[in-house]
């Protein structure tokens, strides 16, 4: 069972990102502050849920969170500063947009650049351990999926409606055969489509 928060002294925001491993599109991040007594049936790491489950949970999180925000860093900025720094920047932008200023941050993963001297803790697989990080993972994922589906209408050959920019065999094959779209990350290598790659 997921815990509500990591600590109870300060107002805490959970943070997570989506899209780090993609070949195209922005990286999105979300920051979420939940009520201390918050509980939502089925809330879990977004990667453990299907599209329908995530879309069902999203409006409940957005309605019941004390504060939430989503931000992104586009493909051009990713190419300039690299995907790790872009992920940190997307989280910083999401935290900055929160209506309530958190006194503590919990970050999914093992690395983070401190933001505005707010203390933080990095938690490996935190989206499967704490509700606020799980909520952030769902918002980041669903907002990014929506973005990719929208731009995918103009570039149907890459099938972003289905793969959301992740390096599936079909996506890599399309890039090799037709080249990059304006939304592809130029610093990301497209490997042999026959190689198996896991993606979110």
TrEMBL record:
Keywords: Cytoplasm, Endonuclease, Hydrolase, Manganese, Metal-binding, Nuclease. Residues 10-200 form the RNase H type-2 domain. Endonuclease that specifically degrades the RNA of RNA-DNA hybrids. Its cofactor is Mg(2+); Mn(2+). The keyword Magnesium does not apply. Its main location: cytoplasm. Manganese or magnesium. Binds 1 divalent metal ion per monomer in the absence of substrate. May bind a second metal ion after substrate binding. Its EC number is 3.1.26.4. The gene is rnhB. One of its GO terms (biological process) is mismatch repair. Belongs to the RNase HII family. It catalyses: Endonucleolytic cleavage to 5'-phosphomonoester. GO terms for molecular function: manganese ion binding; RNA binding; RNA-DNA hybrid ribonuclease activity. CDD domains: RNase_HII_bacteria_HII_like (cd07182). It is an enzyme of class 3 (hydrolase). One of its GO terms (cellular component) is ribonuclease H2 complex. This is Ribonuclease HII. It is found in: Cytoplasm.
